[in-house]
Amino acid sequence: MATDVEVPALGESITEGTLAQWLKKPGEAVAADEPIASLETDKVSVEVPSPIAGVLTEQLAGEGDTVAVGAVIARIDEKATAGAAAAPASVPAQAAAAATTNPAGAGETPALRGDATAPVAEAERDGDQITTLSPAVRRAVLEYHVDPTSIRGTGKDGRLTKDDVIAAAEAQKTTPAQAGAQAPQAKAPAPEAKAPAPGPRPSPGTAGERREERVAMTRLRQTIARRLKEAQNTAAMLTTFNDVDMSAVIDARSRYKDLFEKKHGIRLGFMAFFVKACALAAKDVPSVNGSIEGDEIVYHDYLDVSVAVSAPKGLVVPVVRNADRMSFAEIEKTIADYGKRAKEGTLTVDEMQGGTFTISNGGVFGSLLSTPIINPPQSAVLGMHRIEERPVVKDGQIVARPMMYLALSYDHRLIDGREAVTFLVRVKEAIEDPTRLLIDL
Predict the structure, then answer these.
(1) Which of 210, 306, 408, 436 sits CB 3.0–4.6 Å from 355 for a disulfide?
(2) DSSP label at 375?
(3) For 228-439, CATH number?
(4) CB 146 within 8 A of CB 297
(5) Residue 166 neighbours by CB under 8 Å, 6+ apart
(6) Between residues 133 and 69, which one has the greater pLDDT?
(7) How far, in Å, CA of 228 to CA of 53, rounded?
(8) In whole numbers, what is the pLDDT of the chain averaged over residues?
(9) What percent of the chain has pLDDT above 90?
(10) Residue 148 DSSP one-character state
(11) Rounded to an integer, what distance in angstroms lies between the CA atom of residue 17 and that of residue 38?
(12) Sign (positive/negative) of CA torsion 272, 314, 405, 413?
């Protein structure tokens, strides 16, 4: 008897999601609690586990379909034999005919043509594993012109990620021998043959090509776009700037990084210093950590910091809760775990909800200066940027110092300019003299 696989609860106020990728194909054996599909919600990607051990016999929804919480998307038969199941119900019957009648697909593998369920062989140390490329990975493969079968996946269960494709493309650029292996090698000319003229030669079939691709926005990207525009339309947003001398923090990290990592098992980064500095500054300027609800202002006696981290499908902001009460090591471990799971797509909805203040570090991408957008219903966001040596005046002397620009974007409906500047100055003072973080000054 077949068991239905239903869309699980996706979090508070979330009633539906998009079926982003099937992780198992009809006819494949699955273990109990093994993921068989991934769903994309407004906030995160969620994997759908198999309720029992058996064989996936039916797929009742296709990749890209919107599915409601509680909807049946597949069936598992605990008595079926692997390999004996029928073709997936979500794949149209005409797809098979298209493979032989569509001349535009000639010479391409099914995965590169964009067939969502086309298998791609990927060599593994313990044997050959058949995987399915997600839409994002397929687009990256086409864009960077790499062979997906030659790339070792770093995603869950060895699946390819977009970062894997980009890394392979970069390696292909820097290693001519490897790049040449991606295409058939031309025969060397005979000794008497005339050498070809120098200069770049277009690849066969690509000269003069101008391509366009239309791709539906993911649910997450739609939500990001909507929320950012709502923030601009609703809040009276303003940004104030300052710069900070990072010498003291850099010196502290240099002196204690080895001991810190040995004791706590995590590297000491810059984020813990800034989180602690913001917690200290919020005590003096509580409105920065507040929010507007209707005609009321809500002040929080705790600091839940939303930390912006990069994920394959866009920027996400998991929340470091009670950051004001956490140690440096606890902050670093929490952020490192969020960053890792953001790339894997395993953050939960609960970890994305809430937050009273946001820190965004554009410096890791090389940003010199920016005006970050607040994350409603929060009222402020701190933007960090890259560190670079610049000439500054110290004690009447021009010296080089590692400087960073800081930007505080805030809702002027709640936070006055004086308060915003005061908050940013408190952060600057704490970073330039980290002793303040120890003595609460």
Answers:
(1) 306
(2) -
(3) 3.30.559.10
(4) no
(5) 140, 144
(6) 69
(7) 43
(8) 79
(9) 36
(10) G
(11) 10
(12) negative
DSSP H helices, 175-218, are 176-180
Compute the C-alpha angle 345/221/237, nearest 5°.
Answer: 115
> Which residue is catalytic, options 4, 412, 433, 440?
412
Per-residue pLDDT at 42 exceeds 90: no
State yes or no: pLDDT of 309 exceeds 50: yes
Catalytic annotation on 416?
yes
Those residues whose C-beta lies under 8 Å from the C-beta of residue 91, and which sit 6 or more positions away, are: 59, 62, 117
E strands, 42-137, where? Answer: 45-49, 54-59, 66-68, 72-77, 119-124, 127-132
The pLDDT, as a whole number, for residue 144 is: 80
Average pLDDT over residues 390-415: 95
How far, in Å, CA of 163 to CA of 168, rounded? 8
Above 50 in pLDDT, residue 61?
yes
For residue 231, give the amino acid letter. Answer: A
Handedness of CA 327, 330, 333, 335 (dihedral sign): negative
Alpha helices in 238-367 (DSSP H): 247-264, 271-284, 328-344, 349-352
Which amino acid belongs to residue 292? I
Domains 1-91 and 228-439 share a fold: no
Q: Which of 123-132, 147-156, 241-250, 318-327 has the lowest mean pLDDT?
A: 123-132
Residue 323 pLDDT level (bands cut at 50, 70, 90): very high
Sequence-distant (6+) residues with CB within 8 A of 198 are: none
Q: What is the pLDDT of residue 292?
A: 93
Q: pLDDT at position 222, please? A: 81
User: DSSP assignment of 152-182, as one string?
Assistant: ---SGGG---HHHHHHHHHHHHH-HHHHHTT
Domain-wise residue ranges, the chain: 1-91, 103-179, 228-439
Class in CATH terms, 1-91: mainly beta
CA angle 145, 118, 75 (to 5 degrees): 145
**Listed range (2-11, 264-273, 317-326) with the worst mean pLDDT:** 2-11
Structure tokens of 30? 């699955």
At residue 190, the pLDDT reads 47
Give CA–CA dist 160/32, Å, rounded.
23
- Sign for the CA dihedral angle at 105, 111, 117, 118 comes to positive
Catalytic residue among 33, 251, 416, 433: 416
Q: Where does residue 334 fall: left (phi above 0), alpha (psi -120 to 50 degrees), or beta otherwise?
A: alpha
- Helix spans in 85-128 (H): 94-101, 110-113
Residues ≥6 apart with Cβ < 8 Å to 103 = none
